[in-house]
């Protein structure tokens, strides 16, 4: 997420909303994620007790429709960073495999 300059606008907005609420940005981010349809269990990589506490506290937060709109407003969709390069490498590997002689009997 930190590859494009406009992504920092999202982080800035997240920090603003979190500051207004007096909670860590991680709690606001997880609370937003939990409001999304289809998300029932976000994957949380907790390496410290505080990470787990933030995740648990996020489940108690209810964001207002205005807060959700403010969080989503600066977001600009773009391809997942690194994904296109991986797909291109896979295509190249497939092309190379197609050029190799077959080991199976004809």
Describe this entry's structure for a reader.
The protein has five helices and no strands. The chain has helices spanning 7-21, 25-35, 49-58, 65-72, 83-99. The longest helix has 17 residues, at 83-99. The chain has one domain (7-99). The protein is mostly helical and 106 residues long. It is globular, with a radius of gyration of 21 Å. The mean pLDDT is 81.
How do the strands and helices of this protein lay out in sequence?
Elements: H1 7-21, H2 25-35, H3 49-58, H4 65-72, H5 83-99
Unreliable stretches = none
List the total number of helices. 5
| Helix-strand category | mainly alpha
Q: What does the radius of gyration come to? A: 21 Å
**Amino- and carboxy-terminal Cα gap:** 49 Å
* Series of H and E elements: HHHHH
Total number of beta strands:
0
The overall pLDDT, averaged over residues, is 81
Shape: globular
Structural domain tally: 1
- Helix percent reads 55-70%
- What's the main sheet like? none
Task: Estimate what percentage of residues fall within beta strands.
Answer: under 5%
